[in-house]
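Collaborator request, handled under Task 6.
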Amino acid sequence: MNGNLSARMREAGAPYKLVFGVELPRLQSIAEEFQPSRQLAQELWNENIRECKFLATMLMPPQEFLPEIADIWVDEIPTAEVAQVLCMQLLSKEPWCAVTAFEWIASPSPMRQLCGFLCIARLLQQGAQLQERSVSELKDQAQSLLPSADLPLRKAIIAATSFLE
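Structure tokens returned to the collaborator:
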């Protein structure tokens, strides 16, 4: 437990039942000690504990993480931090990620929009190429959402569109 980080997160109003303040590299090390398991990942995800959410993204077997499950998890994300970890650790590794990400950015849900742009940014960072039509759609959605976007969504939009130039 990182007491300082945990206390600061609680003071800032973190929406969790419990916060240990464990940093991501330490959680990755802990996750390596376990066999990936859909059941364990789902149980961890269902806990309202920051670190359990992170571990769930690391322990879910990618081949068992279906788009339907992703939709449910994205709708249950409590913070932008969890969205970032989910996109980095799991979503961007899925073969259906790009298609789903474009569906999410067109959604009225700000958390789905955030995850969509985060996933696209991650895929582009990893060298993925978008078709011209997809680039146009991404630019249109970004232009439409940017003026009213909160800070995490604004950063995700900028990250995704920065790869287009």
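The cover message to the collaborator said: "The chain has a mean pLDDT of 92. The chain has two domains: 1-64, 80-165. Please let us know whether this matches your experimental observations."
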